[in-house]
Amino acid sequence: MEEENKPVEGETVIVAAPEAEEPKADNGYKDITLTCAECGKEFVWTAGEQAFYAEHGFRQPKRCKECRPIHNARIDEARKERAANGGYSDATKSVAVTDDSKTILN
Ligand SMILES: [Zn+2]
Q1: With bands split at pLDDT 50, 70 and 90, how would you rate the model's confidence at 29?
Q2: Calpha distance 2→79 (Å, rounded)
Q3: How far is residue 106's CA from residue 98's CA, in Å, rounded to a whole number?
Q4: 64 CA distance to ligand 1 centroid (A)?
Q5: DSSP class of residue 57?
Q6: What pLDDT sits at residue 20?
Q7: Can you say how many angstroms the Cα of residue 56 is from the centroid of all Cα atoms in its chain?
Q8: CA 31 to ligand 1 center in whole angstroms
Q9: 65 C-alpha to center of ligand 1: Å?
Q10: CA of 47 to the centre of ligand 1 (A)
Q11: Which residues contact 89 (CB under 8 A, 6 or more apart)?
């Protein structure tokens, strides 16, 4: 008599096939966890991003994705402000000059 209903012990082995690895770009990069300099939260700098940064000569990001646009906007604003003031902010000086000329005219 053959036992056909033996518990199949080897079955789990088949199930345990390794999860298909994500199709990583073949660039040798690995995801890195960095700490945001702005909010202190940890964020993942993915392999793909690292490759992108390296390609463009960017340095390692200091801020998370949430803080980066805020920081960039701040830099942008400061830059625009400086440009609007003709390089440096000497707006107060020109006001003083107009006041002086008024006094002279009187
Ligand atoms: Zn942040």
Answers
A1: very high
A2: 84
A3: 13
A4: 4
A5: T
A6: 62
A7: 14
A8: 17
A9: 7
A10: 19
A11: 81, 82
Residue 50 buriedness (CB in 10 A; 0-12 / 13-18 / 19+) = buried
The candidate with the shortest Cα–Cα distance to 51, out of 70, 32, 37, is 32
Residue 61 alpha carbon to ligand 1 centre in Å: 11
Higher-pLDDT residue of 106, 50: 50
- By the 8 A CB rule, do 50 and 24 touch? no
Distance in Å, CA 14 to ligand 1 centroid: 43
Averaged confidence pLDDT in the chain: 77
pLDDT interval class at 96 (50, 70, 90): very low
